[in-house]
Recover the amino acids of this structure.
């Protein structure tokens, strides 16, 4: 009986751990994407030399840049899927 | 993330490891990797912003070159703002003037460069935070649709 209890509690711990690690991995993936977006959108939106603060125009540009980048990614994915399906026939 | 794999296997071998301890290690490793990524990208961007072409020309930005900085700083007294102090003196008068100018030159150059880099780093963090918020709200909007 003791052996069974020990196994089940260890399994519970292991799956709880897996769940928590999966959450951390998701957070890490989010942050990796933010790094990519910031990299691309910095080049698009930051003009000239660094200023003493981020003005609203630049901030709007950054927000739009993220949205447009995601839209572009979705567009490409969809169109590519269509192309592959057409090619299959 | 390689360290993460080995930690896990050693824990399993030595018996039941505290879940809290493992999660601590995982979070720390992720945070370190994140910081390294941030620094690498920030350095790349700020190098490009503040240095431009190595030995490049002065425009109305903080990109600097040697001779125009000297003249402008002399005229406008900007070296005061940079808290600059000449360090090296020579004994020959001619050499004194030349060397003093060179020291002033490089000190101002360094000072302006540091200012540019500091501002650039702050702006990069601001941009990163803005992008993070934008991405987060976009994800929430997408989830709300489903």
């Amino acid at each position: 009986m003791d052996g069974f209890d020990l196994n089940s509690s260890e399994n519970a711990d292991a799956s709880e751990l897996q769940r928590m690690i999966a959450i951390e991995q998701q957070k890490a993936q989010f942050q990796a994407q933010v790094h990519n977006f910031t990299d691309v959108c910095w080049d698009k939106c930051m003009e000239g030399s660094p200023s003493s603060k981020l003005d609203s125009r630049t901030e709007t540009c950054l927000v739009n840049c993220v949205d447009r980048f995601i839209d572009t990614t979705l567009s490409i994915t969809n169109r590519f899927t269509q192309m592959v399906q057409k090619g299959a026939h | 993330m390689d360290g993460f794999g080995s930690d896990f296997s050693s824990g399993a071998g030595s018996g039941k490891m505290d879940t809290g301890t493992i999660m601590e290690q995982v979070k720390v490793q992720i945070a370190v990797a994140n910081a390294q990524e941030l620094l690498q990208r920030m350095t790349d961007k700020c190098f490009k912003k503040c240095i431009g072409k190595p030995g490049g020309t002065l425009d109305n930005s903080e990109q600097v070159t040697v001779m125009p900085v000297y003249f402008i700083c002399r005229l406008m007294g900007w070296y005061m703002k940079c808290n600059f102090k000449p360090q090296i003196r020579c004994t020959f008068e001619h050499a004194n003037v030349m060397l003093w100018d060179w020291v002033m030159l490089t000190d101002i150059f360094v000072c302006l460069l540091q200012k540019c880099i500091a501002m650039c780093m702050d702006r990069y963090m601001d941009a990163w935070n803005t992008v993070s918020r934008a991405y987060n709200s976009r994800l929430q909007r997408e989830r709300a649709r489903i």
In short: Helices of chain B lie at 2-13, 19-51, 66-76, 78-81, 93-145. The CA atoms of residues 41 and 90 of chain B lie 42 Å apart. Confidence is low (pLDDT under 50) at residues 1-13, 54-70, 72-99 of chain B.
